[in-house]
Write a structure and sequence with these properties.
Blueprint lengths: L7 H10 L8 H16 L6 H8 L3 H8 L2 H9 L5 H9 L6 H14 L3 H13 L3 H12 L1 H6 L7 H22 L9 H17 L10
Helix pairs in contact: 2-3, 2-5, 3-4, 5-9, 7-8, 7-11, 7-12, 11-12
InterPro entries: Homeodomain-like_sf (IPR009057), HTH-type_TetR-like_transc_reg (IPR050109), HTH_TetR (IPR001647), Tet_transcr_reg_TetR-rel_C_sf (IPR036271), TetR_C_16 (IPR041678)
Keywords: DNA-binding
Protein name: TetR family transcriptional regulator
């Protein structure tokens, strides 16, 4: 949603934060502040209040424009994908079917008409030195619910999901960037059948993981 010079929210915010009445660019200021805070301290430690303070607005305006902190991070990364649909498909899968579901869902996005744009956006973010944003987006938005579901023993969820992400990163590299056959020519179902069990082992298998605080 764009903000005009006469946006009433800008006027309201100016009374609380000292910003000039009618100042435009509130949404963009919040995005810039969020990008800075996420990069500086990470997703968990970047509070809505601190982002609002950096942007010079009331915290209520952050929620007004972007909703939750996860939605704000999605807006910062600005990928041309519907993260709610992706998360819903993965959430609908039983725990013992997460591996194949994640492979099938992610490859479905890569192979869709918006896949090239999404991959290009990821590469642009990484090329700009904002790898922390991509990491937070994948682990805190796309797969945050999965982390909670596979957190057994307690504290292992992050490592499990990180291993799964590394596996999928390799598949992406082989399929879309380097172009290794037969991975390029395989269907999403074939790759899900072949790669899914590896992801499943990372997510729910008996792994000799280091302590969570290591």
């Amino acid at each position: 949603m764009s903000v005009s010079a006469h946006d009433p929210d800008d006027t309201a915010a100016s009374g609380r934060s000292g910003r000039r009445p009618g100042q435009s660019g509130t949404r963009e200021a919040i995005l810039d502040a969020a990008r800075t805070r996420f990069a500086e301290v990470g997703f968990d430690k970047a509070s809505i209040r601190s982002i609002a303070s950096t942007a010079g607005v009331d915290p209520a305006l952050v929620h007004h424009y972007f909703g939750t902190k996860q939605e704000l991070l999605s807006a910062v990364v600005n990928l041309p994908v519907d993260t709610d649909v992706i998360r819903a498909r993965i959430a609908a899968a039983p725990v013992d079917g997460l591996g194949e579901t994640i492979v099938r869902t992610v490859i479905g996005v890569w192979d869709s008409p918006i896949g090239a744009s999404a991959i290009a956006a990821f590469r642009a973010i990484l090329g700009g030195g904002d790898a922390a944003l991509v990491r937070s987006f994948v682990l805190e938005v796309i797969l945050r619910d999965v982390r909670d579901r596979v957190d057994s023993p307690p504290g292992s969820g992050y490592a499990r999901v990180a291993l799964a992400v590394a596996q999928m990163g390799g598949v992406l590299m082989a399929r879309k960037i380097i172009g290794i056959e037969p991975i390029v020519s395989m269907s999403a179902d074939e790759l899900a059948r072949l790669v899914g069990p590896s992801l499943q082992r990372y997510l729910t298998g008996d792994l000799d993981l280091p302590p969570a605080d290591a």
